[in-house]
Amino acid sequence: MTNVVDPADTEHRFRRNGQDLRVRVVGLDEGGERGHLLLFGAVADGCLVRVHSRCLYGEALRSQDCDCGPELDKALDLIQAAGSGVLVYLEQEGRGAGLIAKALGYRESERSGADTFTSYETLGYPADARTYLATARALADLGLRSVQLLTNNPAKVEALRQEGLQVTAVPLRTRALSERARDYLEAKRTRRKHWIPTDAAPWALDQADAASPMTDEPSAVDPVVITPGENIRPRPGPGAAPDLIGA
Ligand SMILES: [Zn+2]
């Protein structure tokens, strides 16, 4: 973890959705993982954690081609509702390859019809160059031994688990904003084993419903408890089994 100032000296008010929270900021720049940890409220064992990679298009520009913006919004909504939690915001645009690579990948997918992972590989980029080990260490350095990780991505769970953290994975449900976003989610599910609902998937809703705000969405499916030494496998709760695809 890298920080030139005491995190306590960064504490300030943060207002979103009409609600104030205290936030502290910790820098991270280690092993190719660069970004910040935003510590909301009183961070303690079992708190909500979102490890999020930067997506200029989806977040700042509100592109409807991916689910990054809705995922970030949903994660922050949940952290605010809980009154505390950690957002790790990583400068890993384009799954770690950068914005130019991402643009080349989009263009290649447009040309060939292949999914985003295949397009990256066609262009000579890794399908996903991101790592999370320094992030995991930074979380452990905060004194955390257990977290509720807001993610659909088994690779993030595994990285935190390797650092000795007990992880309860809480898959995030977001509503696909377009046909292309739906295809992207499907590629993440089939190519990277993300835990994304299938039968009851948000994108199965009709178009009119899909265009409505996401305020009525369930916040998450049943949590998955994963402790060091266990295989990563979602634990479907009652009625949730058809929704989840395991690792
Ligand atoms: Zn995105």
Please provide a written account of the structure.
Its cofactor is Zn(2+). This is GTP cyclohydrolase II. The protein is α/β, with parallel strands linked by helices. It has eight helices and eight strands. The protein has an eight-stranded mixed sheet, with helices on both faces. Helix 3 crosses helix 4. The C terminus is likely disordered.
Secondary structure elements and pairings:
Blueprint: E1 12-16, E2 19-30, E3 33-40, E4 47-53, H1 56-60, H2 68-82, E5 85-90, H3 99-112, H4 116-122, H5 133-141, E6 146-150, H6 154-162, E7 166-170, H7 179-192, H8 207-210, E8 224-226
Parallel strand pairs: 4-5, 4-6, 6-7
Antiparallel strand pairs: 1-2, 2-3, 3-5, 7-8
Helix pairs in contact: 3-4, 5-6
The structure holds zinc ion.
Give the DSSP E fraction (strand runs of 2 or more residues): 15-25%
Gap between N and C termini? 30 Å
Cofactors and ligands present? zinc ion
Oligomer: single chain
Strand runs, count? 8
Protein name: GTP cyclohydrolase II
Catalytic activity: GTP + 4 H2O = 2,5-diamino-6-hydroxy-4-(5-phosphoribosylamino)-pyrimidine + formate + 2 phosphate + 3 H(+)
Cofactor: Zn(2+)
Pfam families: GTP_cyclohydro2
Please summarize what this structure is.
The chain is an alpha/beta fold. Helix content is 31%, strand content 21%.
Structure keywords:
single chain; 247 residues; alpha/beta; 8-stranded mixed sheet; 8 helices; globular; disordered C terminus; binds zinc ion; GTP_cyclohydro_II; metal-binding
